[in-house]
Design brief:
By secondary structure, this protein is an alpha+beta fold. The protein has 7 helices and 29 strands. The protein starts with a helix and ends with a helix.
Length: 519
């Protein structure tokens, strides 16, 4: 009996050491020293078993320990594999997919559709492109990344390091772009070198940078932006401001008035998103911050609605940290990207895409993912009464911005897609973010299939080249994306040959120009 107990003890020791070997790659503090210590533990356990029972017993102990450690590691740290073609993301269980679509993976793992050829769906190819970093004065001046076929990225603005949001104006000069830089307290105005806007203007060559000027400085962490009725709205650490835009870039900085003041201060890691409905109602995200759930003020962990009359109400609750908000261009529904807590029990919870409705409860802190109860706070009864997300994104991917492709001057397959920028975490060894993904949508915003990588390869295990944040579609029909790491704003260029365009016309039933003109 004593021998059995000793054997079990040494097996647990060997299993623990082997488990640490599997876990080294996901630890944010991994280092050669840590690997050395872990291997030292493995050698120690093997030496004890060999000494006590002889080398023959090692033939049994080693496979058993490695197998158990592997199974445990798969449970504790679900892997997010790289694939050269496409990455797929979990959809809500009520999303209907055809029989040719692979089933959703189990637990919180994210599987891969290696063919990406669903019945009746277009086939997206993958190409390698060089992404220019030259204007950021970094080395290397360009990196090779992966994009969907028919796409390219051209830099149009530099010097905006730390950019988190951007929005385009409409009206007299619809091609004026505004960018927020929270850490520097600035909002920039960015325009083409030729300030007069003509819809027929062709794409600038890569070297033709837009000019930028400071619109407002000294602000208290300007974050989310939106444009409404000729004014720029800015969410700051404790307020919402309305900026009156000068008619000329030579005019001194914009004046502003406070729309809402004395909000609970945003924590150092909190970001506040902002969007405005056609009726002038302001929707503002309020993260949980650093407070414990039982200490939260009523405004936090949800979305506030600020009416045109200045009344403030809690529109929806149960959102740990909504990083981006926008309205669907057809349905008017409010969509949100949720940055989930860093860890929950031993599992990092997945990030979420939610459709926000008035009075909705989206689970936090009791539930996560598809209504999964928290081990300590949640129950099945509580979670079944919450509103489930429409899709999940990989843990630690940090979704930072999104845009609907409805108004893109591009083939139908690219217009019927939700584009999401995954900023990524600096300490995430798996590099789950650092990419732009797309989820195919129907006309009414219903998810119609698996998502896939639109742009990937922005980071390796050793280097981070770009951290995409905001996405916006301008009146020129182009999609723009900002990079907080280098301060570059890129414009997506869609390049198709005549054959591709003819295929697009068949699958769309009408020309892209007609769709955009009516949309």
């Amino acid at each position: 009996m004593r021998g059995i107990i000793e054997f079990l003890f040494y097996m647990i020791l060997l299993w623990g050491a082997a488990l640490l070997v599997f876990g080294v790659k996901v630890f944010s503090f991994n280092s050669p020293l840590l690997l050395f210590v872990v291997m030292l533990g493995v050698g120690f356990a093997l030496a004890l078993i060999g000494k006590r029972w002889g080398r023959g017993m090692l033939l049994i102990a080693i496979p058993m320990a490695v197998l158990l450690a592997h199974l445990t590691a798969e449970r504790l740290w679900p892997t997010v594999e790289e694939h050269s073609r496409a990455r797929t993301y979990r959809l809500s269980p009520d999303v209907n997919v055809d029989a040719d679509t692979p089933p959703p993976p189990s637990d919180n793992n994210f599987g891969f559709d290696s063919t990406n050829k669903r019945k009746g769906a277009p086939d997206f190819g993958i190409q390698s492109r060089m992404l220019s970093l030259e204007c950021a004065n970094t080395l290397p001046p360009a990196v090779e990344v992966r994009m969907l076929d028919g796409m390219d990225l051209h830099p149009i603005a530099c010097g905006l390091k730390g950019i988190e949001d951007m929005v385009f104006s409409t009206g007299i000069n619809p091609m004026a772009m505004f960018a927020s830089l929270p850490d520097s307290g600035m909002v920039y105005r960015v325009e083409r070198q030729n300030s007069s806007f003509t819809p027929a203007v062709t794409d600038n060559p890569p070297g033709d940078m837009w000019r930028k000027s400071i619109l407002s400085s000294g602000l208290d962490r300007p974050m989310g932006l939106d444009w409404h009725a000729g004014s720029l709205y800015v969410a700051t650490r404790t307020a919402v401001l309305r900026l009156k835009i000068p008619a000329s870039t030579t005019t001194p900085e914009a004046s502003f008035e406070t729309v809402v003041a004395d909000l609970p201060p945003a924590s150092a890691t909190e970001y506040r998103a902002l969007t405005i409905a056609p009726d002038g109602s302001i929707y503002l995200s309020m993260g949980a911050g650093d407070a414990k759930p039982q200490e939260l003020e009523w405004q936090r962990a949800g979305v506030l609605c600020i009416t045109p009359a200045g009344e403030i109400e809690l529109f929806a609750a149960g959102l740990h940290h909504a990083r981006a908000l926008t309205h669907h261009p057809h349905t008017g529904a409010l969509w949100a990207l949720e940055d989930s807590p860093e860890s929950l029990d031993l599992h990092p919870p997945p990030e979420e895409i939610n459709i926000i409705k008035q009075g909705g409860d989206y689970g936090w802190p009791f539930c996560y993912g598809f209504q999964v109860p928290d081990k300590h706070l949640g129950t099945t009864t509580i979670c079944n009464a919450t509103d489930a997300p429409v899709a999940l994104l990989p843990s630690h991917s940090t979704p930072a911005g999104f845009a609907f492709g409805t108004m893109l001057d591009a083939p139908a397959r690219y217009r019927s897609m939700l584009y999401v920028a995954l900023k990524g975490r600096m300490d995430d060894a798996q590099r789950s973010g650092f990419r732009i993904v797309g989820l195919p949508l129907g006309d009414q915003g219903d998810l119609t299939g698996w998502g896939l990588d639109v742009v990937s390869g922005l980071a390796t295990s050793k280097e981070i080249y770009a951290r995409p944040t905001a996405l916006a579609v301008a009146s020129d029909g182009r999609l723009y994306v900002s990079d907080a790491s280098t301060g570059i704003v890129y414009r997506f260029i869609f390049t198709f040959d005549d054959d591709t365009k003819s295929v697009t016309a068949k699958e769309d039933g009408k020309s892209a120009g007609q769709d955009n003109g009516e949309g």
